[in-house]
From TrEMBL:
Keywords for this protein: ANK repeat
Name used for this protein in its record: Uncharacterized protein
Annotated PROSITE patterns: ANK_REP_REGION, ANK_REPEAT
Entry-linked Gene3D superfamilies: Ankyrin repeat-containing domain
ANK repeats, residue ranges: 57-90, 91-123, 125-157
Entry annotated with the keyword Transcription: no
Biological process, per Gene Ontology: DNA damage response; positive regulation of double-strand break repair; protein localization to site of double-strand break
Entry's Gene Ontology cellular component terms: nucleus; site of double-strand break
Entry keyword ATP-binding: no
Source organism of this protein record: Conger conger (Conger eel)
Length: 304
């Protein structure tokens, strides 16, 4: 059943949600962080009962905790080695699905905050966690999901071809959900969520750039580099080289075109990546900035 405007009133409780969020964060720090104040660690005494028990329908302790909004239990399960936050029961439902279906806001918040591998796009018969939340009237949870993952969730369709917004009949609520999605999109570029992965990719790209530069050693600043740069600034490489017979000359033009386009690619790099403190990411950004500067110099050297 589509969510109506009555749900809007549920979204105007920021003070309460903030207080709840602060309490949840403190609880997580005490339960999850090893060695923190009051942290129990992962000893046997603090291991939840029925940790590895699966019931007749395939539900794990995570599923059951999310159905009952037992966030303390959830936070005690998450640190255990081998815990799969995306585990499915026999019907294919994940703990996040259960939390969204049953309105377990605290559990949804905990999963989003403490599980970087959490899958928000999993669907069962076309029903995603976002669909599940809206179908059951939990607009506050829908907001959390959209603020976390952005507008990509609004592109999902259920088995009937409906998007999440198609389930909402109230225009005001639709606008609020779109705003949350926009906030989520903006957040994607404002913080680095997986620094080790970014650092590994940056290291690989830097090595590839340096290896290519050393291997090719293309003297772009020597003729015909500057003149060709001006031609490529006005026309594409395929058009400039359409009558060229030498493959090496064509490749030279393609490489130069790529060099001139580095500045355009840099503009599309998220601020979080450009300002990332990681050593390999900083090195990659410096390398790209040097290439961009070289391209600008080439255009400046080219005769009018």
């Amino acid at each position: 059943m589509p969510s109506g405007c009555d749900d809007v009133t549920d979204l105007k409780r920021k003070d309460v949600e903030t207080a709840a969020g602060d309490s949840l964060t403190r609880a997580a720090e005490e339960i999850v962080a090893p060695g923190g104040p009051g942290a129990p660690g992962l000893d046997k005494e603090n291991t939840p009962r029925a940790l590895n028990r699966v019931n007749a329908v395939g539900e794990t302790l995570l599923h059951r905790a999310c159905k009952k909004n037992q966030v303390e239990t959830l936070l005690r399960v998450l640190p255990h080695p081998g815990t799969d936050v995306n585990v499915k029961d026999h019907a294919g439902w994940t703990p996040l699905h259960e939390a969204c279906n049953h309105g377990s806001s605290a559990c949804v918040r905990a999963l989003l905050e403490h599980c970087p591998t959490l899958q928000l796009e999993t669907q069962v018969d076309g029903v995603s966690p976002l669909h599940d939340a809206l179908l059951n009237g939990h607009a506050d949870i829908a907001q959390m999901l959209l603020r976390h993952a952005g507008s990509i969730l609004l592109q999902q369709r259920d088995s009937g071809g409906r998007t999440a917004l198609d389930l909402v009949s109230c225009p005001e609520l639709q606008d609020q959900l779109r705003t949350c999605a926009e906030e989520g999109d903006a957040a994607q570029g404002s913080e680095v969520r997986d620094l080790p992965f970014l650092e590994a990719c940056s290291c690989l790209l830097t090595c590839l750039l340096l290896s290519y530069t050393l291997e090719r050693d293309v003297p772009f600043h020597e003729p015909p580099g500057p003149q060709l740069a001006r031609a490529l600034a006005a026309h594409s490489a395929p058009r400039v080289t359409e009558r060229w017979a030498q493959p090496r000359s064509v490749r030279y033009a393609q490489d130069l075109e790529t060099l001139l386009g580095v500045g355009r690619y840099l503009q599309g790099v998220a601020p979080a990546i450009r300002n990332c403190p990681g050593r390999h990411t900083r090195t990659l950004m410096r390398q790209l900035e040097l290439l961009e500067s070289e391209g600008r110099e080439l255009l400046g050297d080219a005769p009018a």
